[in-house]
Please model this.
Amino acid sequence: MSKAFDLLKWGLTLGKDEQNFLGARWVPAFLRRVPERSKRKWALRVLDLSPHYFLFPNNPKYKGLSKDEYLEAIADDARISREKIRDSFLLSKLEDVGSLIDWGCGPGFMAKALSPHLKKITAVDISAGALACAEIINGADNIRYIVGDRKGLSTIKDGSADAVISFHLFQHLSDKIARIVLSNASSKLRSGGKLIVHVQTENDIWRTEEEWRSDESLKGRMKLRYGLNCFGRSQVDYQQMLGEAGFEVESFEDMSDLMRENSTELDGQVIVTAYKY
Model:
């Protein structure tokens, strides 16, 4: 029953595009109507409707907390995890970067973590609801949140960004959409600009898109349509995609090495650094 409820919940928040959780028009409209004093509480509750963000309610560390206490605790964990990524390796890769695009920013934890260190951040996401939550939870004077559709992207001048980063995004995109995102990112980067992308390579847990689409069971079709897609790809696949979009790959680095952590949670997670031709 809980799985069926999850699919119903996710379906009610979906926008018109693939994987556009919290993209339904009612989500930002609802948050605009919430009194200022309650906006953070309701933004966290809204994020909890998505399969993306708050994933571990049964973790013993949250035992005994009320629902709202749990949401605050896991949001704080999200903040800490982004700050750890920032301090472990990301800031060193962003030296001399003034203008940054955070592509697939979700509720803005990474953008907020980087905001004290950069002049200008444009945070892009397909989900208007996730962005509405981001503005409440992770707003900053130098962060501009925009919807990643044609209208929103038109407000970013071509060739204006020094760097583009993307974390926890590409494993949830189909090959078709991943290529579109890379093409758009390339158009917004200056010549020689840097791309830093977090990806999940294929393994026994992360099936390829082809494997997912070949699953014709009702459960498989429902998960593909209404659940969170989780596609693994090889480094060769990413090398090809990036080359097609006008990037030269500098490195593929294991996340576990960069974070100096030996954790099974990081298995197959890779940071790709590339430059626009």
Summary: The CA atoms of residues 71 and 214 lie 36 Å apart. Residues 2-276 form a domain with the Rossmann fold fold (CATH 3.40.50.150). Strands lie at 99-103, 120-125, 143-147, 161-166, 189-200, 247-254, 269-276. The radius of gyration is 18 Å.
